[in-house]
Amino acid sequence: MSRGEFDPELDLVVERIIRAPRKVVWAAWSDPAQLAQWWVPAPAVCRVERLDLRPGGALVSRLSSDGLRFEPHLDAVVLAADELERIAFTNAIRSDWRPADPQPIVVTVEVVLTEHADGTDYRMIARHGDPASRGRHAELGFADGWGTVTRQLAALVESAGIS
Hints:
The chain is an alpha+beta fold. It has helices at residues 22-30, 32-38, 131-139, 142-159; strands spanning 11-18, 45-51, 58-64, 71-82, 86-90, 108-116, 119-127.
């Protein structure tokens, strides 16, 4: 699937203009320490266990509500990583390349970064296998969850003051 394709029957999307250069947004995705700062909705905290942004690489994170006990959050394989432009991953395959049965939803995520006069045009598409899965993800709070982490990402990179 190429960038920009969106199927409203199967996909959910978060879009935002982030007032920071693409390289800064990319760094927030590609640096584990930065990713951990915004990857889960606060006040939960995140640990990025593995981040290998290359096709076949891993994206593994854990989350904690108290900062002490961490539970699995995401175990995914990276499908695409085009520097400064696109990251795609899925939880349908674990980071060890074994088939997964992730609960509550199987999803493939594509993040697309493009230049914008005010910074970066940020588009995150969550792709589902069928309309029921899309509906379930929406019911579980996709807009709130992904919207929140996108706002956290924007706050982090916009506060960096790099232009």
